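re the bet — no i am not wrong, look at it urself. input seq straight from the record:
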Amino acid sequence: MEKMENLPEEEKEMVMQLPNSYFERGKQEGIIKRNQEVALKLIARGMSTSDIAEITDLSEVEIKRLASE
């Protein structure tokens, strides 16, 4: 593997951003997962799809899919 100092500046920046991009993607996936869990609880309590969508930032289509599972 080529050493960092031998890489062009553009590639160095890209390589240095990789850990951050993976962290951000994981963080986003975690937020979505948590919103889905909250949506399931609200579905179980009989809340309307539009209210759940507003609270969780999930689409109504996604909420209906969760409800049907």
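see?? The first helix runs from residue 9 to 44. told u. also The chain has three helices and no strands. so pay up
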